[in-house]
Amino acid sequence: MLIETVRMGLRNLALHGLRSALTALGIVLGVAAVIMMVSINEGKMRATLGDIERLGARNIIIRSQPPANEVQQQSGKETSFVNKYGITRDDVTALTAVFPEAEAIVPVKEVGAQVLNRDRARTSQAYGTTPKLLDLAKLRVARGRYLVESDLEERANVAVLGAEVARLLYPNEDPLECEVRIDGTSFRVVGVLAPVGISGGAGGALIGRDLNLDVHIPITTARVVFDDLIVRRDSGNIQAREVQISEVYIASPSRERVPTDAALATRFLEQRHPGMKDVTIVVPYELLANAQREARNSTLITVTVAGIALLVGGIGIMNIMLATVTERIREIGIRRAVGATRRAISLQFLIETTVLSALGGIVGVLLGVGASVAARPFVRWLPNAPFVGHLFSESGELHTALSFWPIGVSFSVALATGLVFGIYPALRAAKQDPIVALRHD
Length: 441
Fold this sequence. Notes:
Helix 2 (17-53) runs antiparallel to helix 13. This protein folds into two domains: 2-51 and 290-439, no CATH class; 70-251, no CATH class. It has helices at residues 2-15, 17-53, 89-98, 133-136, 149-154, 163-169, 202-207, 219-225, 258-272, 284-327, 329-337, 342-381, 404-430, 434-439, and strands spanning 59-64, 71-74, 77-81, 104-111, 114-117, 120-123, 126-129, 141-144, 158-161, 179-182, 185-193, 215-218, 229-234, 237-242, 247-251, 279-282. The protein is elongated, with a radius of gyration of 33 Å. By secondary structure, it is α+β, with helices and mostly antiparallel strands. Helix content is 53%, strand content 18%. The strands form two sheets. Strands 1, 4, 5, 6, 7, 8, 9, 10, 11, 12, 15 and 16 form a twelve-stranded mixed β-sheet that branches. Strands 2-3-14-13 form a four-stranded mixed β-sheet, with no helix packed on it.
């Protein structure tokens, strides 16, 4: 009896193929929307969390920043005069005493106005630092080597280039063992860093620059060769900054110690830099926790909004099935007259709604997964699209990440929707009086 009821339900759906397809369309679009929206949100979340994690989950970063009243007007031209501000070498020495258990305390000093290779020049992003920055900042060497302790001891004129600055300054040659000039001083290139993927993400925003354009030299060389005063000219403006140390990385011994060490670093800065107007502190671990909470909230909102589409699809199925019941009253009367029970009648209609929901869920899963996979290359292709390509930026990027849970949850909800919204039409069909049904025209 059950097998025959299933066959009859499938036969009725096949007889009205177009109506069945349109009925299931709400479920298809609802499931696809859930998977697509969650995959985009998940991809964005992973990209953001990855950017923050690359800053080091156990790191505390103290940065020098210009005070708010830096810009002054003089002689009709905007000229930036900045007195001595930010982190000092004495601060770094004091931090060593304040954090005796820190795995490392690494200073970073900005130097130079320009980085040049013959006729190619870039605004300087050269920094003096120590070999420990490689591990603390999660950097990797693609070719050559990074700075070593002997470079610091000998105050060697060696440099390690970021991936992008190496490409821009040496487009047709290998930069290793070539010379690069920072202002008027030549440095021998000993290494090239692997690309860092936080130039446009949350990590890049926190650092305030594209790390792929950085040039690293020994901090001892930076102090000897370059003064603390950096003067830059841009479109008639003169920017003068006097900063001894641009950044300091403090590596806590464990993640559990990060909040305590961050609070201690904040108290330290407030004592030596009242109001913290010329310094700021970045704690990637705390930012990571906040980003995770925001991502969970965003996912919840996304699933709720997309779930409404499934609800609408379920209502559509119920409406169509109610109309089908009215349309098939005479059929119901004939079946009841030849011995079909109310249970068999309700089961037939319930099977039809369940099959519609299941098929809609399967098609929706395939559509959602396909759209999620195709979304990233499609966004990359848009700038090259005919007629409308100029409307899109070549730097546009869309991250997607497929997970099993939205697929499983959306399909389960679709199936449950068919069951729930199919119960009422099924019960209504089963309650039809056989005699009245047979007289129905």
